[in-house]
Amino acid sequence: MPEVLFRVRWPDDSVNRCYSPSTVVEEYFRAGGSYSLTEFVTLSRKALTEASERVREIHGFACAQAEAQLADIELKAAEFADQQAKILVEGFER
């Protein structure tokens, strides 16, 4: 299963490389795309849950790394009071 890293620039200008066990994340985000904090968290939840389920279909268990990545995204997002603040998905790495 092809893994994908996606680079995310947060409102405080910090950048994280986020992990997905599947290319499905590329169906939810586009390189250079800007998303409100709320939208980004919602899409991350959908993308990483779907990616984890793809792992379950193949290996019989969910992807713990995808679940941990989602938890990290939600924790980082909670640092920002402005839910309309913009998140930039800078690109993807394989």
User: What is the first-to-last residue Cα distance?
Assistant: 11 Å
Going across the major beta sheet, what is the strand order? 2-1-4-3
What's the helix-strand series? EEHEHHE
Helicity level, as a percent range?
40-55%
Q: What is the overall pLDDT average?
A: 95
Strand content bin: 25-35%
Summarize the structure.
The protein has 94 residues and is α+β, with helices and mostly antiparallel strands. The chain is built from 3 helices and 4 strands; from the N terminus they run ββαβααβ.
General description of the model:
The mean pLDDT is 95. The protein starts with a strand and ends with a strand. The protein is α+β, with helices and mostly antiparallel strands. The chain contains three helices and four strands, in the order E-E-H-E-H-H-E.
Write a concise keyword list for the protein shown above.
94 residues; alpha+beta; 4-stranded antiparallel sheet; globular
